[in-house]
Every structure is written in structure tokens, then in C-alpha cells.
Amino acid sequence: MPVTRETRRTVAGLGRRILPDGVAELSLNTRGRRLDPKPVSSTRSWTMTTIAELVSAAGGLLHKHDLVALGATDRHLTVAVRSRTVSRPRRGWYSTWERGDPRYLAVAVGGRLTGASALHQLGAWTWTRPPVTVSVPVTASRLRRRRGVRVVWDPLELSDRGSTWAVDPRDALARAVVETRSFEDAVILVDWARRAGIVEGDDDAAEVLSRRRADAAGLVAWSDPGAESILESVAGTRLRRAGHHVARQVPVSGTSKIIDMVVDGIVGLETDGRAHHETRFDKDRLKDADIARDGLVPFRAGTVMVQDMWGVTVGAIRALIRTAGGPRPVAGVGNSSLPRVLGPRGRRAWRLAPPRRHTGQELPTAAG
């Protein structure tokens, strides 16, 4: 597994350290040269640290070459491993991660995390923890397989990008979206990637998403950089697939408040995750009042209503639309220009048809 430029930059910032071997202390000068042991009370500006602290400061993983460059000896490393402050997932590599950590498993196999498992470590939105997928170069050998860990072979060019434990997030995204269990999960990842700045703009997103499968570029049309949570992403995708028009992050007139999404120009839908809304009861009710004064019908859906009771939730939204008089003409309404979602084929759970050409205005097709 290559030592990336990122690791070298991190190590370069650790030059002014002292490495203990568990008994004696070893000081380093500002150029990283190993000096004679110095007492703790030295008047020089030495910084005290351990092998584990050096590894942790580098993100939890460091190669022996880098530790030796900082003044570590075989004795220091042996004592650190025996004391269990660090462990070796693979020969030459030292880590402070737990042995069950997906990053640790990837290094132990001899590769780096990729796909959804790599994005999950970066905070990607998912309902469940994805299985561990490890990328190795096509020329890789002497791999140490682990139960439950999937290994994939990637082109050598991917080795020049990313970190010591994961491929570049853009490469991980390209693989993840075509390997998701559902179309909805793919849109969730793209919405998150746009929100996190992994991709910027439609053209950039389309280029990344099409790296594995050309039709995946169509996810750009289905995704929305305005989605701020997994609940917003899922609700918006399901409503659009049902034929409703969804506008995200709509300002409430005369206030600084923003509505999560407006459905068919009538329902102001707020998706409430418990972590962010359990202490905002009164503020949320006041926001509902502002939405109503703005001529919209306020409606709130929590995590359970979106994840487990969507039939009840969408039924209530449709009832509110009918009660308010049905869909009204709104510029840009209509979803037929979106790429059509096709069924599974081979290893893929979903595919996209080429987008249909469309001119003129459409009305919502499933408001009732």
C-alpha cells in the first residue's frame, strides 16, 4: 500500500517531537534528527509525546519509514506494540484504530476503503452501516482476506489519489452509487456529496458519476444540492418519483426562515430529525404559523414517518393538497424530463434510461 503525499505532509508537521520507548525519552531537534536523551526539565522547548500520539496525530495510521524518520527505533516500536498502545494491521504499518474499524480492516487486507464504506467514514448519509469494500490495485498480491470484507481491483491510477486508508472520495462515490441496494440510496449519496462539496455543480457531478456507468450521470437530475439531511433527500425523491413537484429550501415571506420543501406549490413540508428538533417544539410551531400566513399548508414528518411509515405520510400530503384545491399551475412543474428509473439488471439494483426531451410547462401528475 503506497505512502501518500497526504501522509508525508502530516509527518512533516510532526518533526518537533520526543519519542519515548516506554522507559527512556528521546528528543528530536527541529530537523527530525535523533539526539541524546534529555531530561523532562530541560530548558529547551521540547514537546513530549509517544509512538501512539504520533500515530494518532497522523490520523491513526503511520508507516514505519515515517516513524523512523521522526527518530523512532525498533525498540520504541516493539515496546509500543507490546504495551498495546498501537497495533500493526499489516507489516510496516502502525495504527491506533480498533481492530474492527473498517479502516483497520482495509489496511490489514492490503488495500484501502472504497465505495459506500469509504464515504460512510466521511459522514455520508445512510440508513445502515454499509459492508466493508476494499480497493486494491490490479497488480496487488499477497492479500490477507478477511471474512465479510469484499475486495475489488481498481486501475493503478486510483493509487495516486486519496489517503492511506481510503481512495479519493470522488472515486468512492462513482463506485458507491452503482452498487447501492436501491435507486433511492444512490440519490441519497449524491445529495450528500453535493452538500459536502465532494462534487461541485452539475457538470462536475455528472463527470464523476459516469466514471463507472454512463447512465449514473442521470442522478444529477434527480439529486438536489438543497437537501440538508437524509430525511429531506428521501422524502424529496419519493415525492418526485410519485409525480409531485418539489421545491427545496423555499424562503418564508417576510421572515428569515426557510421551508425544507414545498410540494406542488401547496404543502410546506418540514422533515424533523429528533436530534435537531426535540428542543425546538415552540419554535417549530411558530414556523408552522409563518408558513400558513404565507399561504401554504404546513406539515411535519419525523424520522419514523419517512423511514417506516411513508405510505401514511404521503397519503396525508395528498389529502392536504386535495383539501387546498388541488395542484395549481407553477412554472417548472412536471417530472417527465427526469431520466426514467429502470429495474435491476445483473449486479445492479437500478438503471436510468436516457432523459426524454421536453418543452413547455407541465402540471403535477400524481397530486390526487
SSE arrangement:
Elements: H1 5-12, E1 18-20, E2 25-27, H2 51-57, E3 61-63, H3 64-69, H4 74-82, E4 87-90, E5 93-95, H5 102-109, E6 112-113, H6 115-121, E7 132-137, E8 149-154, H7 169-179, H8 183-196, H9 201-209, H10 219-222, H11 230-241, E9 246-251, E10 258-263, E11 267-272, H12 274-277, H13 281-293, E12 297-302, H14 303-307, H15 310-323, E13 341-342, E14 351-352
Parallel strand pairs: 7-8, 11-12
Antiparallel strand pairs: 1-2, 3-5, 4-5, 6-7, 9-10, 10-11, 13-14
Q: Please, could you describe this protein's structure?
A:
The protein has 368 residues and is α+β, with helices and mostly antiparallel strands. Helix content is 36%, strand content 16%. It is built from 15 helices and 14 strands. It has a four-stranded mixed sheet with strand order 9-10-11-12, with helices on both faces. A three-stranded antiparallel sheet has the order 3-5-4. The longest helix is centred in the middle third of the chain and has 14 residues. 40% of the residues are buried. About 9% of the residues have low confidence.
